[in-house]
Specification:
The protein is 40% helix and 17% strand. It has 423 residues and is an alpha/beta fold.
């Protein structure tokens, strides 16, 4: 099996099964409802972990939650801890609706403070970090290989966190002194404060996967400075850290990166309620994981049509596939996990058993289920539709819960709805 790695600038061979394979995929900073772009690392990481497991690998998938960060303080002054808890619940609820369930650990930065403090202390002892009053910074100049992940030349790296007291403008914070308006803090050898962003992920990854593991994932926008700094920190204490760096392309809205700061955001919750999990998953399947993907109503309509086409196969008699059909499917996924090619292969099949098995790789086996909803569930859905029309969203959410408890999922489609069995 081969996978593209940002660090290697090309394809890297995975070890033979069973591995083991440790995977760490960077998750969100929790300060607002996550947008649909935040789902891509989660979905891609979950799919790949599932495929590796099916191919005989022992996989541990870690997807972190950054619940202490400047963005959280800015979004919720004085109540950042409450906002982080609330937004974490939102995120776990939203990604849970994809029905993939492959993540083994969802660690939070706030749960790794002892490991973070020990990590920083080790860097100070090795002279890779230094104190400036109550802050601690990493010495970029001392890390000879700094820039090897991102391709940044050390003498061209711009200042990451302005502070006139630093030894070098390129140095980045490992520990930040508590400010008067920051309500979340911990005691440390350097005073009251909280960790910098980059050290959080190094500590969480190594806490759960050890000092060397196979795959580190995340969005392409994290290559610099976040992942470059993670690699620098762990290398400074003599750890190999991640061998393969799997960076997914960004989700773009009308050709631009989706971002809360520019206001072109579709939340994960809204997309899943409007289009349903199957259509959202099919949308992500249409682009290679390391390529950008454009989000639009037209692209989502196209994904929905693909789902309808796949469902239609199961409404007709099964036809045996040609010899070697499954091997061809395996080949395109083993070679850099090409989901668009895998999707094209699936569209050729009329073999129900084979197609159902392939769809299950991506959490889409529900497309093969043609059952009709019971009368009582359909009645709940009609009542929910009426509540939505009346903008009684509390009642709408309550009825959705009853429908899901009965084993069904309601998909909102323009002015209508569709009921499908829960995957």
């Amino acid at each position: 099996m081969r996978l593209s790695s940002t660090l290697a600038r090309g394809l890297v061979e995975l070890p033979e099964p069973p591995g083991p394979i440790g995977m760490y995929v960077c998750g969100p900073t929790v300060y607002a409802r996550a947008h649909i772009g935040n789902a891509r690392p989660y979905v891609v990481g979950s799919w790949y972990a599932r495929w590796l497991r099916l191919r005989g690998y022992e996989v541990t998938l870690v997807h972190n939650i950054t619940d202490v960060n400047d963005k959280i303080y800015e979004a919720a002054p004085g109540v950042s801890a409450e906002r982080a808890r609330e937004a974490t619940e939102w995120y776990l609820e939203d990604v849970g609706r994809f029905g993939l369930d492959e993540v083994d650990h969802f660690p939070k930065a706030t749960e790794a403070i002892p490991e973070i403090v020990r990590f920083i202390s080790d860097l100070i002892e090795r002279d890779f970090a230094y104190e400036v009053e109550d802050d601690v910074y990493f010495r970029v100049a001392k890390q000879a290989e700094y820039g090897r992940l991102s391709g940044q030349k050390p003498d061209q790296v711009e200042e990451q966190e302005p502070n006139a007291r630093k030894e070098d403008p390129r140095d980045f914070a490992l520990w930040k002194a508590n400010k008067p308006d920051e309500d979340t803090w911990w005691e440390s050898p350097w005073g009251r404060g909280r960790p910098g962003w980059h050290i959080e992920c190094s500590a969480m990854a190594e806490k759960l996967l050890g000092p060397a593991f196979e795959i580190h994932g995340g969005g392409l926008d994290l290559v610099f400075p976040h992942h470059e700094n993670e690699l620098a920190q762990s290398s400074a204490v003599g750890h190999e850290f991640a061998r393969i760096w799997m960076h997914n392309g960004m989700l773009r809205f009308t050709g631009e990166k989706m971002s809360k700061s520019v206001g072109n955001v579709e939340t994960m919750k809204d997309v899943l309620e409007k289009w349903g999990r199957e259509t959202a998953l099919l949308f992500f399947l249409t682009a290679h994981w390391h390529s950008p993907i454009d989000f639009s109503n037209e692209r989502m309509e196209s994904a929905r049509a693909r789902g309808d086409g796949l469902r239609e196969v199961f409404r007709n008699p099964s036809q045996p596939a040609l010899d070697g059909a499954w091997e061809r499917f395996e080949q395109v996924l083993d070679d850099d996990f090409s989901t668009p090619e895998a999707l094209a292969v699936m569209h050729e099949w009329r073999d129900h058993d084979l197609l159902r098995s392939a769809l299950d790789v991506f959490g889409l086996a529900s497309l093969a289920d043609q059952r009709r909803a019971p009368v009582d569930v359909d009645e709940l859905a009609r009542r929910r539709q009426a509540a939505r029309s009346a903008r009684d969203f509390a009642e709408s959410d309550r009825l959705r819960g009853e429908i899901e408890a009965a084993g069904w999922e309601v998909r909102d489609e323009a002015d209508a709805y569709r009921l499908v069995p829960k995957a």
